[in-house]
Amino acid sequence: MELIPRGSFIMGKSEEDQAKVLNAPTKTVTVRSFYMDDTEITNSEYRQFVEWVKDSITRTRLAILADELGIES
Asked: Rounded to 5 degrees, what angle do the CA atoms 21, 26, 27 make?
């Protein structure tokens, strides 16, 4: 994980908007520091991870329930 430091930037119209297609007013946006993984993954890889976590949580909950009910596997 990499620490991304806090910072500010100007959002909206810019001097580079030659075609004048951006008509939003400018404003300064400040972002707090945060951590970001330094390894790129695809949306598909992330979806597989999320499904694995959901499945893992469900299995754990079912095991706890079975234990509470006295059911052996």
From this structure: 150
- Please give the full DSSP string across 6-71, using - where no structure is assigned: PEEEEES--TT-TT----PPPEEEEE--EEE-SS---HHHHHHHHHHHHHHHHHHHHHHHHHHHT-
Please check whether residue 34 is in contact with residue 2, taking contact to mean a CB–CB distance below 8 angstroms: no
Of 51, 32, 31, nearest to 43 by C-alpha is: 51
In residues, how long is the chain?
73
pTM of the model: 0.44
Give the Cβ contact number of residue 42 at 10 Å: 8
Tell me the pLDDT tens digit for each residue of 20-59: 655 667 889 999 999 999 999 999 999 999 999 888 888 8
Q: Could you state, in order of their start, the residue ranges of all structural domains in the chain?
A: 1-39, 40-73
